[in-house]
Design a protein that fits this description.
With about 240 residues, the chain is an alpha/beta fold. The chain has one domain: Purple Acid Phosphatase, chain A, domain 2, CATH 3.60.21.10. It contains 9 helices and 11 strands. The two termini are about 15 Å apart. The model has no long low-confidence stretch (mean pLDDT about 90). Bound molecules: manganese (II) ion.
C-alpha cells in the first residue's frame, strides 16, 4: 500500500490534527505501507534544534513507524524546506528531491510539493529562489532560534496579506508547467499538494491520457491518497482510520 499526504501544516495550535496525523502514520506502519509526505507537513520548520511541540511528538511517531517497518519518504514544501539530513538521521525518513519519479506496477508517477508548478506567481518564484539559496539557508540557520521564530511569524503574517490580494488563478498550477514536467519525466500521473484543492483531474495531451492528483490540506478534508492494487483513491484520514478499526 502506498499512501500520500501533504499540507497537514502541523503546529502548536493544531493538537487535533497532530493526533490524527500520528494515528494515521501508526496505522499505515501497521499495514507495512510506503508513506510519501509531500511537503508542508509542518506549518513551519525553523531548524533541527526547534524541538518544541509538535515537532518532538511527530518526529518520534515517524521514527517509531520506520522501526515498525514502514518506509517513509519526504519531499519538503515551501513551509518546511529547511528540513535537512539531520531530520533523516533522527527519524529514518528518507528525504527525496523536489521532483521525484516513482513507478508503481508499471505506472509512472511524478511526485512534487506543487509550488514549483505555480509559475504564474512570478514574485513567489523569485522569493523561492532566494530563500532556497544555500548561503541564505545557512545564514538563517545560524541565527539564534528565538530570532528565527520571530522572523518566521512575521513572514507568515506578511504572506497571508499578500496571498489575500493575489487572484486564485495566479496561485494555481500552470497547465503548461504541468505538461512540460510530465513529459520530461515521462509520467502519466502527477501527484502534488500545495494548492490545497483536493481532486483528481483527468486530461489528455498529444493523445496520451494523463492524470493530476491534488492532495488537500488537513484543515478541511484531511486527505490521503491511497494507491493499492492499481487503484487510486483519494480518501480522508478519518475514513482510513474508521475503515481499519
Ligand atoms: Mn505549500
Amino acid at each position: 500500500m502506498y499512501a500520500f499526504i501533504s499540507d497537514t501544516h502541523l503546529s502548536d495550535n493544531s493538537k487535533e490534527k497532530v493526533e490524527l496525523f500520528i494515528a494515521t502514520v501508526k496505522l499505515l506502519a501497521k499495514k507495512q505501507g510506503a508513506i510519501y509526505l509531500l511537503g508542508d507537513i509542518f506549518d513551519f520548520w525553523a531548524g533541527g534544534d526547534d524541538l518544541k511541540y509538535p515537532q518532538k511528538d511527530v518526529l518520534l511517531a515517524l521514527k517509531n513507524a520506520v522501526e515498525a517497518g514502514a518506509k517513509i519518504f519526504l519531499i519538503t514544501g515551501n513551509r518546511d524546506f529547511l528540513i535537512s539530513n539531520e531530520f533523516s538521521i533522527q527519524t529514518g525518513v528518507q528525504i527525496l528531491p523536489e521532483l521525484c519519479p516513482l513507478t508503481i506496477n508499471d505506472n509512472k508517477y511524478l511526485l512534487t510539493h506543487g509550488d514549483l508548478l505555480c509559475t504564474k506567481d512570478v514574485s513567489y518564484q523569485i522569493f523561492r529562489k532566494i530563500v532556497r539559496n544555500f548561503f541564505v539557508k545557512w545564514l538563517f540557520l545560524s541565527l539564534p532560534l528565538k530570532l528565527r521564530s520571530t522572523l518566521v511569524s512575521q513572514t507568515k503574517k506578511r504572506t497571508r496579506k499578500s496571498v489575500n490580494k493575489k487572484e486564485m488563478d495566479i496561485m494555481d498550477v500552470d497547465r503548461q508547467a504541468v505538461l512540460d514536467l510530465m513529459s520530461e519525466y515521462k509520467a502519466t500521473c502527477l501527484i502534488h499538494g500545495h494548492t490545497h484543492h483536493a481532486g483528481i483531474h483527468n486530461f489528455s495531451d498529444r493523445n496520451q491520457k494523463l492524470t493530476r492528483i491534488v492532495l488537500g490540506d488537513w484543515d478541511g478534508c484531511c486527505s490521503i491518497l491511497i494507491i493499492e492494487e492499481n487503484r487510486e483513491q483519494l480518501i480522508t484520514a478519518h475514513t482510513l482510520i474508521n475503515s481499519s478499526s
